[in-house]
Write the structure tokens for this entry.
Amino acid sequence: GQQVMQIPQYQHVQEGEDFTTYCNSSTTLSNIQWYKQRPGGHPVFLIQLVKSGEVKKQKRLTFQFGEAKKNSSLHITATQTTDVGTYFCAGRGTGGSYIPTFGRGTSLIVHP
Amino acid sequence: ETGVTQSPTHLIKTRGQQVTLRCSSQSGHNTVSWYQQALGQGPQFIFQYYREEENGRGNFPPRFSGLQFPNYSSELNVNALELDDSALYLCASSMGGLAGSNEQFFGPGTRLTVL
């Protein structure tokens, strides 16, 4: 079955440093979504990428979808303490199998 | 706030018991997906209901079942509870079923503990 691997599992940064999390799928994806979950909270949708090579930006966040539609990344520039949380990617398969598979997540810890 | 509500917030059951969890979807949404999130893991897709019918199922045994009502609210039922069923159960509201592949709005979750 489809597997989605996400690295790193944890990332400690000083406030102001950059952060990147990577997501890799074992199969080609129809699209990929990114979510943020604060400690004790629930996942909150950030963005959806659909096209090969797509790049989208939201303020300090940059999302990329690979050319082969099997990998994706989320980059945060100049982290702030409000960025603390776990970032998940969720990939949907192709060929009629649209069941979403979440990665294990990357927990971002920002030190002031 | 997403407008998606879940009840109860917390629940403690013993092994072998049965449990029903409830979810009210966001106004205007016709699709509810259920996820199980174990500690330190990403959400795992259990199944989805679209217009009152099951519309996709993950790798969960038949003792996990569900319903969707005409107002699009939903229930998740788990029979013969096992210790490994202890997790956060999340429902997510969206439009258009699996093929819609749209943004999902998650509820706050139900924390189930099986003793």
Remarks:
- Chain A touches chain B at residues 1, 6, 30-31, 33, 35, 41-45, 48, 88, 90, 92, 98-105 (CB under 8 Å).
- The mean pLDDT of chain A is 94.
- DSSP finds no helices and eleven strands in chain A.
- The CA atoms of residues 15 and 111 of chain A lie 6 Å apart.
